[in-house]
């Protein structure tokens, strides 16, 4: 019985496998409710924002699923200037978000590494060192991670994408830049450098099984992950995987539901970590983020990048852009969260409790 499994203090792999396959709406609700109960216990009815700044869509990699992959010649490439980033950061700071996230395509040339380092120093200078800064800038050397941490970042998100090595191979080009081992090494280096370490996966990839997803959750636990950002895989037609996946993946509704189940299971299994209700959830459902929060997530990353730049940062089709956050704004999101009983916390960083609990 699902109910009995949900009563257990510690779930086995078999339990996780049963729970992730729930289809019955009442059982699904039991699962989500349990996850929300655990969220209330460990985090409270609180949501933390990270103002998201999409700094650049220039990328040296060629991941087969991603719309801004190097090989996509239809993308008009951009890079924000330091002043752009500082201006958006200032808006985030003044609006009390407490944290921001810098995201971009991957680059590891020294010009880029220096640029990020200098920008971080200035962001923190302008905010009295009060902002929690998350980086999502791909695989870098340990030395680069250390420099960026010293310059003011404290968290790093690097998704493993899938822990099934065969599947990982299928969704990436077969070359030395895109290996599973490199990704694992990068996650280890992030821990060594001293970050709150975040990872995550795409959910509903072609060929991905329930067991793969359960193994992903177990991987998060085994690697003592502090934060999770994961969401449904979404087809981008101008990509090789997108072409193969057309008519060959679960429906949008199913991938959305599976993503909610993954959030719930991570909350139940990992308890005191930070979990983001991601943009990709929002892309499949206008209330996706709110539903993600009710399934156990506690972090939202409202896009703060200004309106004339956003359309160029398309990782997948139907990405909510154009001012969904900047215009519809803060207030609408806050209101819809309030309606589900959740409070947005301002002027606090909202760090991963798990990170601090581990240090004790
Ligand atoms: N669908 C969903 N997520 C995607 N990402 C990239 N392309 C897609 C897609 N088509 C995610 C990857 C990557 C992050 C930056 O965006 O998980 O780590
Ligand atoms: Fe580049 Fe990240 Fe897209 Fe891969 S997923 S192509 S590294 S932006």
Please characterize this protein's 3D structure:
With 360 residues, the protein is α/β, with parallel strands linked by helices. It has one domain: Aldolase class I (TIM Barrel). The protein is 45% helix and 12% strand. The protein has 15 helices and 11 strands. Strands 1, 2, 3, 4, 5, 6, 7, 8, 9, 10 and 11 form an 11-stranded parallel beta sheet that branches. Strand 3, helix 5 and strand 4 form a beta-alpha-beta unit. The protein binds 5'-deoxyadenosine (5AD) and iron/sulfur cluster. The site of iron/sulfur cluster (SF4) has 9 residues, from loops.
Helix/strand order, N-terminal first: HHHEEHEHEHEHHEEHEHHEHHEHEH
In CATH terms, the superfamily is Aldolase class I
Main β-sheet, in a few words? 11 strands, parallel
Strand content: 5-15%
Number of strands: 11
Mean pLDDT: 94
Radius of gyration: 19 Å
Q: Which stretches are poorly predicted, pLDDT < 50 over at least 5 residues?
A: none
Which architecture name does CATH use?
Alpha-Beta Barrel
Bound molecules: 5'-deoxyadenosine, iron/sulfur cluster
Give the CATH level 1 class: Alpha Beta
- Cα distance, first to last residue? 37 Å
Number of helices: 15
Give me the secondary-structure topology.
Elements: H1 2-7, H2 13-20, H3 25-42, E1 46-49, E2 51-56, H4 82-94, E3 99-104, H5 110-126, E4 132-136, H6 142-151, E5 155-157, H7 165-171, H8 180-193, E6 196-199, E7 202-203, H9 210-222, E8 227-232, H10 240-245, H11 252-270, E9 274-277, H12 279-284, H13 288-294, E10 299-300, H14 329-339, E11 343-345, H15 353-359
Parallel strand pairs: 1-10, 1-11, 2-3, 3-4, 4-5, 5-6, 6-8, 7-8, 8-9, 9-10
Helix pairs in contact: 2-9, 3-11, 4-5, 5-6, 6-8, 9-11
The structure holds 5'-deoxyadenosine and iron/sulfur cluster.
């Amino acid at each position: 019985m699902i109910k009995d499994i949900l009563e257990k203090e510690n779930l086995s792999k078999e339990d996780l496998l049963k729970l992730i396959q729930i289809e019955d709406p009442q059982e699904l609700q039991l699962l989500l409710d349990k996850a929300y109960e655990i969220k209330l216990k460990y985090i409270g009815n609180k949501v933390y924002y990270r103002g998201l700044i999409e700094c650049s869509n220039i990328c040296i990699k060629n991941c087969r699923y991603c719309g801004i992959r190097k090989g996509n010649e239809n993308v008009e490439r951009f890079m924000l200037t330091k002043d752009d980033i500082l201006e958006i950061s200032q808006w985030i700071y003044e609006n009390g978000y407490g944290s921001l996230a810098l995201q971009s395509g991957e680059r590891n040339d020294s010009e880029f590494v220096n640029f990020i380092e200098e920008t971080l120093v200035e962001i923190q200078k302008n905010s009295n060192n009060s902002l929690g800064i998350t980086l999502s800038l791909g695989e870098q050397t340990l030395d680069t991670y250390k420099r960026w941490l010293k310059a003011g970042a404290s968290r790093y998100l690097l998704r493993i994408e899938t822990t099934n090595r065969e599947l990982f191979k299928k969704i990436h080009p077969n070359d030395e830049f895109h290996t599973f081992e490199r990704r694992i090494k990068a996650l280890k280096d992030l821990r060594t450098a001293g970050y709150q370490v975040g990872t995550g996966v795409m959910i509903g990839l072609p060929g991905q099984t329930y067991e793969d997803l359960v193994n992903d959750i177990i991987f998060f636990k085994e690697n003592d992950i502090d934060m999770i950002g994961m969401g449904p895989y979404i087809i981008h037609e101008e990509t090789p995987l997108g072409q193969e996946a057309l008519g060959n993946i679960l429906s949008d509704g199913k991938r959305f539901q599976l993503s909610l189940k993954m959030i719930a299971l991570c909350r139940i299994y990992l308890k005191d970590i930070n979990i983001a209700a991601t943009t990709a959830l929002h892309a499949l459902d206008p209330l996706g983020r709110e539903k993600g929060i009710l399934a156990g997530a506690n972090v939202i990353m409202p896009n703060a990048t200004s309106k004339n730049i956003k359309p160029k940062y398309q990782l997948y089709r139907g990405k909510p852009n154009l001012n969904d956050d900047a215009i519809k704004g803060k207030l609408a999101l806050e209101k819809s969260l309030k309606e589900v009983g959740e409070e947005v916390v301002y002027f606090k960083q909202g760090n991963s409790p798990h990170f601090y609990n581990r240090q004790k």
